[in-house]
Amino acid sequence: MLSIGEFSKVTQLTIKALRLYHEKGILIPTKVDLDSNYRYYKTGSIEKGLIIKRLKDMGFSLNEISVIIRDCSDDSDLMRHVEEKLKEINRTISEFEELRNSLSVFLDNMDRKEKEGDKMKSFQEVNIEREIIPDVLMCGIRFKGQYHEVGVRFGTLFRKCGRFVQGKPFSMYYDGEYKEEGADIEACVTVKKPVTADGIDCRELKGGKAVTILHAGPYEEIGRSYARLYEFCRENNLKVILPGREYYLKGPGMIFRGNPAKYITKIVMLYE
């Protein structure tokens, strides 16, 4: 029989942690002295304590450890939990990488603004235009997902439509709001002649009267240009018609991302 201090040294679990594991029913001592409330552990509990220590070091939470200790009867059960934990960690890493990239873009853009002053702001404030958008023959892939997923669809369109593609790729957004998940989006390219391919919708896209603005800079800042367009439409009593369109005049290539500060996106809002 080992005292709680001895068991703590053997398993490298603190006495505080051992008391908590006892309270949660994860690692119950063999004996508890009724007078001193002191805990004692049999040597057969050492292996369980070492497993708990290893799970703790691998980032498992108290609740996760409790489930594993309760449900796992062999190594294959434990492997399943470890595999799920690894998937969770990989998802977290991806989310932090995206966050890191966003922070880097933000800092780069702030540095650029300090160097260039208000040139970009002046450019965006004066270039709202009224245009007549012509009818075009287009191929599109409509899907529901996240906004960044449109790039994959463009790759499919260029691959399947090949030499018939003309002009710049564009997206159509069918929602009247921002959505983190399940956004209704269509990736589009104009084509010289009809194209028949699985998963591709080839059709005539109607044009019409529109207001447009050129957004220069990263996509993360495109909201400011949308705000200018919405303000213009309200001031001129124009009723916007969905879907809105974004034409990517200059952006990331299929392989190289390029400099987001030099991206140019044309936002098009048709109206009645």
Structural overview:
The chain has 272 residues and is an alpha+beta fold. The protein is built from eight helices and eleven strands. It folds into three domains: 2-71, Multidrug-efflux Transporter Regulator, Chain: A, Domain 2 (Orthogonal Bundle); 84-117; 119-271, Alpha-Beta Barrel (Multidrug-efflux Transporter 1 Regulator Bmrr, Chain A). Helix content is 42%, strand content 27%. An eight-stranded antiparallel beta sheet has the order 4-9-11-10-6-7-5-8. Strands 1-3-2 form a three-stranded antiparallel beta sheet, with helices on one face. The chain is elongated and about 90 Å long.
Describe the secondary-structure layout.
Elements: E1 2-3, H1 4-11, H2 15-23, E2 31-32, E3 39-41, H3 46-57, H4 62-71, H5 75-116, H6 119-126, E4 129-133, E5 136-145, H7 150-161, E6 165-173, E7 183-191, E8 201-205, E9 208-216, H8 222-235, E10 240-250, E11 264-271
